[in-house]
Amino acid sequence: MAKIKTAYFCQNCGHNSPKWLGKCPSCGEWNTFVEELIEKEDKNGPVVWKSLSLTSKPKAITEIKYEQEPRVRTTDVELNRVLGGGIVGGSLVLIGGEPGIGKSTLMLQIALTLSDKKVLYISGEESEQQIKMRAERMDSKSDQCFILTDNSTTNIFRQIEEMQPDIIIVDSIQTMQSPLIETGAGSVSQVRQCTSEFMKYAKETDTPTFMIGHITKDGSLAGPKVLEHMVDTVLQFEGDRHTSYRILRTTKNRFGSTSELGIYEMQSTGLRQVTNPSEILISQRDEPLSGIAIGSMLEGNRPLMIEIQSLVSVANYGTPQRSSTGFDAKRLQMLLAVLEKRGGFRLGIQDVFLNIAGGLKVDDPALDLAVVTSIVSSYEDIPLPGSVCFSAEVGLGGEVRAVNRIESRISEAQKLGFKTIYVSKYNTKGLDVSEYDIEVKPVARLDEIFEQLLR
Ligand code: TYD
Ligand code: MG
Fold first, then answer.
1. What is the per-residue burial (b if ≥16 Cβ within 10 Å, else e) of 69-88?
2. What is the Cα–Cα distance from 353 to 313, expressed in whole angstroms?
3. Is 213 annotated as a binding residue?
């Protein structure tokens, strides 16, 4: 009888071991090892993809010719941006995101807008009817978009060889199944095997391939970490399910920068590109309200103006609450302590609620100043002028600290029609403030701002 080879794989990180372990030595998770068959002995089974190049030889680096890859530019400006300028030939792109966030919608929409390319959309999750129904809702139509609902890579590659698509989309890699591996779809070794089959095909035929990947509860891509190492680009599709805005973020890119970001809005006709995000992140209102401050932050390389809302009220029921949505709770605690100690505000007996408008999650320290002023504005019940915005970090001593790329932040504020921006004094060295139409106010300490705006 043929010998069957098995090994134990950590379902969290993909670490393998010849015997079962209670705790994974690589990621530290407990009870994650599952026995999986590594290889079936039957080599006469269906061969999935035969390598075209039989041998490869070493070459001197000077002999290797390099031409700037012609990129396929899609009509989706946001996608082009996150990919570093368009789709690169033969690249393998992984798109991760929570269920229901819109991964399938995004990929189908891209398939439909690339009307001059033959796109094969492989779905292991939904039926043809479901996909058609989704396509019906969208504005774009293409007769070059083909749907294949299957999850066995044997048949998939047979169809691919016959059809020779220009672009392949796999929805999702966790539903694919290779006959070379016995375990069920979604297991670590299956995911790894299927990825490597698609990768081989992509590299040898220069066909760009997009793979959708599920993510686990803690937000990392399901399946082995190795998946992220294998692919060229990892995109993360995220957003709050209760709001319609979605962010496409690059977390790895062999062909471009990882600090790029695309913003979409989910509408009834699919995803709309948001070209001027700041406008939607600041709510329009007629009269100023207390507790609202506008800060300038950078998401990747993109400056965004964002609205911070605070509500400070006397805690009537026992322990005061601190609650923040979209902003790090620890950082909020720290800023409150600074206000208490350095500003003399008695916040220890107050409930403090903080909210970042638009459902965004932010972690740029340059928002500190806006957070602090919005809290004080609510505490004193004095509204801030609508034409003012902030961009600086706040230190533990109540000092206003410099932030990076201040020029692009100021320009964005100016573009959106703000009249005054408060920045750190230490940011203005070497900065020619006369260049801007917006008034740039340098401050060194928090008291100066409160003096000017909130007394
Ligand atoms: P979907 O692409 O199926 O998510 P994923 O593949 O990431 O699991 O998107 C699902 C959600 O998107 C669903 O709740 C309905 C919504 N949606 C719209 O709001 N408008 C649309 O035009 C489409 C196609 C979907
Ligand atoms: Mg889907």
1. eebbebebebbbbbbbebbb
2. 9
3. no
Domain boundaries, the chain: 1-41, 74-275, 282-453
User: Among candidates 439, 325, 339, which has minimal Cα distance to 389?
Assistant: 439
Confidence of residue 110 (pLDDT cuts 50, 70, 90): very high
Question: Is pLDDT at 42 greater than 80 in this prediction?
Answer: no
The residues facing 17 across adjacent strands are 8
Q: Tell whether ligand 1 has an atom less than 6 A from the beta carbon of residue 103.
A: yes
Q: Rounded to whole angstroms, how far apart are CA atoms 147 and 131?
A: 8
What is the number of the ligand closest to the CA of 170?
A: 2
Quickly list DSSP for 29-53: -BS-EEEEEEE-S-TTS------S-
**DSSP β-bridge partners for residue 95:** 212, 235
The CATH homologous superfamily of the domain defined by 74-275: P-loop containing nucleotide triphosphate hydrolases (3.40.50.300)
- Cα-trace Rg, the chain: 26
Q: Is 98 annotated as a binding residue?
A: yes
For the sheet containing 16-17, what is the strand order? Answer: 16-17, 5-10, 33-39
Sheet strand arrangement including 233-238:
145-149, 119-123, 167-171, 209-214, 92-97, 233-238, 245-253, 261-267, 270-273
User: What is the spatial distance between Cα 446 and Cα 153, in angstroms, rounded to a whole number?
Assistant: 61
Cα–Cα–Cα angle for 353, 358, 363, nearest 5°? 70
Question: Is the shortest distance between the CB of 96 and ligand 1 below 6 Å?
Answer: no
- Ligand 1 centroid – CA 249 distance (Å): 18
Instruction: Indicate the pTM of the whole model.
Output: 0.74
**Whats the size of the chain, residue-wise?**
455
Tell me the pLDDT tens digit for each residue of 278-289: 767 777 677 788
> Does domain 282-453 match CATH 3.30.230.10?
yes
